[in-house]
Prior knowledge:
Blueprint: H1 3-17, H2 22-27, E1 78-82, H3 88-97, E2 102-107, H4 110-123, E3 128-132, E4 145-151, H5 160-170, E5 171-185, H6 190-199, E6 207-208, H7 209-218, E7 222-231, H8 236-239, H9 245-253, E8 257-266
Parallel strand pairs: 1-2, 1-4, 2-3, 4-5, 5-6
Antiparallel strand pairs: 5-8, 7-8
Amino acid sequence: MRPEDLKLAVREKYGQIASQSKLQNEQSCCGATCGCSGTSYTIFSESYDNQEGYNPDADLGLGCGIPTQFAAIEEGSYVLDLGSGAGNDCFVARSLVGETGKVTGIDFTDEMLAKASKNLEKMGFTNVSFVKGDIEDMPLPDSSFDVVLSNCVLNLVPSKSKAFAEIMRVLKPGGHFCVSDVVTKGELPAALKNEVEMYAGCVAGAIDINSYLEIVEKQGFVSVCLHKQKEVDIPDDLLLHYLSDAELSSFRESEVGIYSITLSGYKPLI
């Protein structure tokens, strides 16, 4: 798929998802009428219930981790959330930066931005804002943020290299990113990978973890740290369409599969 076609598909899909609740998204990717065969976008999502600043109205269950847990966000920090959706991670980050910090969310889906703005209006924060923009070419100034967050979004971006180059550009020297994302380990059979993408929609666009780390390091980030990884549970009945019983046993013993990770890295001071 061409990059522009992928972006259009993502924009349309997440525009549909924005109109639904977390419960609806857990039951199907975009409702009973979209014909998506029960694809789940919430298979990696984790509970935010105990997170300060959590607003259930802003949680559509689309994340694959809780990056704010590992982001070392300090009071007064300027934070940017990439693919901010309905604002979930932005509002959690707001509880950490306090009154003196600032949180900006960027998204290119009009429906998500509208939902985030409505949530913000209800909460009344004056130091949280949402802007429309493409993660590969953000309409934001250089060296503006202390921390960049993202939650299950970068895997959907056509060029991870451009995305991390933009993260490097907008971070202040010494600033850092902390992202939760979806990656693969090992080589999945092509047919199986396609089937898994149908099973868990957020898997689309995922690349091998080693390639992912190489992209991050090539953009110049230092002190890169893998905080957490979690394997998606692919059901046996799905795998047995492609694997024999013996192959399934071998697959289960290997590390080959789809994983959610939470990763951070720093922009050098100089």
